[in-house]
Design brief:
This protein is mostly helical. It has 15 helices and two strands. The protein has a single domain, classed as NCX, central ion-binding region (A middle domain of Talin 1, Up-down Bundle), CATH 1.20.1420.30. The chain has a two-stranded antiparallel sheet with strand order 1-2. The radius of gyration is 20 Å and the shape is globular.
């Protein structure tokens, strides 16, 4: 029981790239753009290693818990990045990253899974009951997360002072975390059903486990620490790169940080769609934005004072609009219980249009 050749290749590449990112950070080498690009690649590689480690825990944790844990730890690099961005007072990057992480999953990653799965297998089907449950949770969680923004935009007395915005965000965050805990039993059952319902290859992941329990847990610990360091280097390189390339904080958070942090869902979701495991692919991809709205965003509100910041759930009007648009369209696409390549292409194009709109801020 040990690393395969592909495992060693991924580990070596990750160590080399992370080492290069650290060297560029501490030695101040490479100008303004190269350290940022290297750190972004290292962040994506670490996210992939996190996903690989959780995959190896699958037969120990059970299929349901594995799906939830994989989504949670897959969002770990984003949590670190946003905390460090808040520490450096990059509030535009922080808020855009939260929204961008949801958009990247429900539009880009889901679109890529539908596109490639549809090209290879034609029309794909998935459990409509599970899709309805996840869609309902997504709508409820995003709606709750938007309440502070809407209250602020509509001029309610509750947010006439910044202190009240913060208080309202804390209350909403605590309630969202409670909703996440309440949704866990249903998520575990849904993940188990989704994996068990795979067509022909549903049991394949369990048969490919090659790491011992200790190795898998050790790799999780190492990659978690590595993600914290690389996230710090990534944020440090972000501001000089934005100035040099003329990138706004909104675009950097909405697109660049979100895509780099969603490497696990990008790779695993598309792979599952290509294997015609559409139930499991949909569940994995949608689980991540659910955890962004139910866990990551509330956690950032509660943890931000630790880095000397005051983060709230108040978003700009354009972020509110694109978030509502993306969630509504995703619900419409998945509720019929089937997908095809054209739906995937449409989601990807919509993501591209939204990303372009934020290029200028």
């Amino acid at each position: 029981m040990g690393f395969t050749r592909s495992d060693w290749r991924l580990i070596i590449i990750t160590v080399v790239v992370a080492g290069a990112a650290g060297t560029a950070y501490y030695a101040k080498l490479g100008g303004n753009v190269a350290p940022f690009v290297i750190a972004a690649i290292a962040l994506a590689l670490l996210a992939t290693l996190v996903g690989r480690s959780v995959e190896e825990l699958g037969d120990r944790l059970g299929s349901g818990a594995t799906g939830v844990v994989q989504s949670a730890l897959g969002n770990l690099p984003e949590l670190f990045v946003v905390l460090f961005a808040l520490r450096d007072k990059l509030y535009g990057v922080a808020t855009a990253t939260i929204v961008g992480s949801i958009l990247a999953n429900v539009l880009l990653v889901l679109g890529l899974a539908f596109l490639f799965g549809g090209i290879k297998h034609g029309r794909q089907t998935f459990g409509s009951e599970g899709a309805r449950t996840m869609s309902m949770l997504m709508v409820l969680s995003v709606a709750a997360m938007l309440v502070p923004s809407l209250t602020s935009a509509l001029g309610s007395h509750a947010t006439k002072a910044a202190l009240h915005e913060r208080d309202l965000s804390i209350v909403v965050s605590v309630l969202l975390l409670g909703l996440f805990v309440a949704s866990l039993p249903a998520s575990l059952r849904r993940q188990k059903s989704a994996e068990g319902g795979g067509e022909g290859e549903g049991s394949e992941p369990a048969s490919r486990h090659s790491w011992s329990m200790g190795v898998a847990l050790g790799m999780l610990a190492i990659t978690g620490v590595g993600a914290a360091f690389v996230s710090d280097w990534f944020v440090a390189a972000l501001q000089p790169a934005m100035s040099t390339l003329g990138i706004s904080e909104a675009f950097a958070g909405l697109v660049i940080v979100a895509i780099a942090g969603n490497a696990v869902e990008n790779v695993v979701g598309i792979q599952l769609a290509l294997k015609n495991q559409s139930d499991f692919a949909l569940s994995l991809i949608l689980q991540s934005p659910l955890q962004i709205s139910l866990v990551v965003a509330p956690a950032l509100v509660l943890l931000s004072p630790l880095v000397g910041a005051s983060f709230t759930l108040v978003l700009s009007p354009l972020l509110i609009a694109v978030l509502i648009m993306a969630v509504v369209i995703t619900v419409l696409v998945v509720l019929d219980g089937e997908s095809n390549w054209l739906e995937g292409a449409t989601l990807i194009i919509l993501y591209g249009i939204i990303a372009t709109a934020f290029w200028w801020g």
